[in-house]
Amino acid sequence: DIRTAQMQAVLDTYSRPRLGQDRSGNSVELPAMSHSTLSKIKALLTQLYDYAIQNDIVSRNYAQFLVLPKQAKSKKDCFTDLELEKIRESAGKIPFADVILMMCYTGFRVSEFLELTPFSYDRSLNALRGGKKTEAGRDRAVPIHDAIRPYLEAWIGKNGKAIICTDDGEPYTTDKFRRQCYYPALEAIGVRRLSPHATRHTFATRLSAAGARTEDIQALAGHEDYEVTANTYIHQDIK
Question: 49, 61 in Cβ contact below 8 A?
Fold first, then answer.
């Protein structure tokens, strides 16, 4: 008996701020659900209807007609020269500042970076090998800049399962790294709370500012098309 309009009302309700209760039972305003969460709700409803069709409970999938709210495009950003200098000065002094600096100099996605192992370091090439997501991004070689080599060697010296590892040598999950390492380090350094992906934007932007060839920036970022790199990852500065 559940039809599109009733399910759409649910999505519309959660796409806006609404009144709710906290754990103590007090009335509070709850924020709108993210576009990602709303998409997952729609996916679940679609799967439920698929199951119902397979079992002759219904004849049509009414969830396929659900409309998600338009996703507001968040403004991407990168660390400024001054912020990067603060990060550089904090490396070795503030925990994980050196890791953030390495991310800015290698351009790996945070998940790719955390999956790098000591075997990912090719000393003969002086490069890190890793990456995933796209064909162009898989197993790409990224040269190690002199500015980060000492920090990389120090982390590899921990002999963990991954280069960036916990005290007992275990890899970090992306969520744990964000919450316990990355954001606390930014706060201690005194720079903006940009997402880990901002390090990737910083990498591409500084390569472009330094006059790197477009095909080299594309290859190092692991993009199939330079247009993605130019339109999304490079942030020109008036200087």
Answer: yes
